[in-house]
Amino acid sequence: MVMKILIAEDKRNFAVQIGRALEGEGHSVTLAADGSEALRLGRSAEFDLLLIDVMMPRMDGFEVVRRIRDLRLETQAIILSARDSMQDIVTGLDAGADDYLTKPFALDVLLAKVRATERRIPARAPRELRCEDLVLRPWMFELQRGERVAVLTRTECALLEILLRRAPAVVPHGALIEEAWGPGCDVSFDSLYVFIRALRGKITQPGEPELLHTVRGVGYCLRAEAG
């Protein structure tokens, strides 16, 4: 699959190096030198993937990703940053990024993550998946519960689809990561927890029965609460 990739990075030599490697893999690459340009380009064209630095002029990467998610664009986003604290990673994923890669990194690792992005794009088969009163429409990236509808990111949609297809069985942490991100992808249990926490907030609102359950030390499952 040939992807249209937007690289938002203010260090041009670094951006060009990444761009050439991705073009060598057959992808189409566009460069943006600051956050405002990245947002403008992201709004005007249908990119499959955004690779974005955090510390950029005019608008930081967290804000760019957040605004792209607010626009409900389907572009996947991987943050590339030297900011490697747990709080930075949580902030990036909560903003709507699908992955977070800390600098410095091996180019082969980035290319592997890009390939994993291709694999985890959900198939848009027009079939609803259900558990109790929860309905997932993967081709629309939305869930419905009663009259309430919530929009999902690609990663949230992929995770929920996996859990629904296996419900009510418990899906182990490692199996969930491998199926959602691809084999060998470097995604930690902490990162998975951040996505699950966001997904749980969309599945269950105050007053609604809990459906997404944590099995401590094992994984996650979808099922009705025991009566």
TrEMBL record:
GO biological process: regulation of DNA-templated transcription
Signal peptide per UniProt: none
InterPro entries named among the record's database cross-references: CheY-like_superfamily, OmpR/PhoB-type_DNA-bd, Sig_transdc_resp-reg_receiver, WalR-like, WH-like_DNA-bd_sf
Cellular compartments per GO CC: cytosol; protein-DNA complex
Residues where 4-aspartylphosphate is found: 53
Keyword Flavoprotein: no
Keywords tagged on the record: DNA-binding, Phosphoprotein, Transcription, Transcription regulation, Two-component regulatory system
Record keyword DNA-binding present: yes
Source taxon at top rank: Bacteria
Domain Response regulatory, first and last residues per copy: 4-118
Regions recorded as binding DNA: 126-224
Pfam families: Response_reg, Trans_reg_C
Domain OmpR/PhoB-type, first and last residues per copy: 126-224
GO molecular function: phosphorelay response regulator activity; transcription cis-regulatory region binding
Name listed for the protein in its UniProt record: Response regulator transcription factor
Native source species: Silvibacterium dinghuense
